[in-house]
Amino acid sequence: MKLITVSGPPSSGKTSLIIKTIESLKAQNIKVGIVKFDCLYTDDDILYEKAGILVKKGLSGSVCPDHFFASNIEEVVQWGKTNNLDLLITESAGLCNRCSPYLKDIKAVCVIDNLSGINTPKKIGPMLKLADVVVITKGDIVSQAEREVFASRVQTVNPKAAIIHINGLTGQGTYEFGSLIMDKNEEIDTVIERKLRFPLPSAVCSYCLGETRIGSSYQLGNIRKINFEEQ
């Protein structure tokens, strides 16, 4: 079974991309399943089910969804193996630009859209910088010049990534994307002992542990303050 991780900011078009790509892969008799990670709520699993795609979802609740991913990815892989999948796709919540739920030697995809703002590539951390493939969506809504400038900004941030433009509504580009994620992607039986490409945030403060009161006397643990004198 092959495994890929798809991440990206909310509303960037991840789910539409995945559904259209799976339609293309199904035509090649490739059995695909997906596990959607989110925080409090998602109905994407309903969209996947309507498309006839095997799906499970995991809601992290009060826990960071990317920490939740790291704590559950081995069980997810075993679920995929049990269902005899050829390809297992994990879709992250994309709620934190600092987090990067990518595993070393497992193909990583970041989805970002042209409407997110020309400086957005600079604002996204390891989620974009460490991706193997960057998919740029919603190119039909902007001009050719805007598409080229945005793609150039993406390439500046991650010069090693393969960049592909995809229309999530029509599916244009998904056949090529499907070939890209299946090519040179190793078969796995487990992810035990594999490592994340980038450490997740390790800050543990009083607010992480349930504190609700504002004030320095309530701020314990790993606290970071703005230095107004240096600005």
UniProtKB/TrEMBL annotation:
Transmembrane segments: none
Limits of the CobW/HypB/UreG nucleotide-binding domain: 4-164
Pfam families to which the protein is assigned, alphabetical: cobW
Molecular-function GO terms, alphabetical: GTPase activity; nickel cation binding; zinc ion binding
GO biological process: protein maturation
Alphabetical list of InterPro entries matching this protein: CobW/HypB/UreG_nucleotide-bd, Hyd_mat_HypB, P-loop_NTPase
The protein, known as: CobW/HypB/UreG nucleotide-binding domain-containing protein
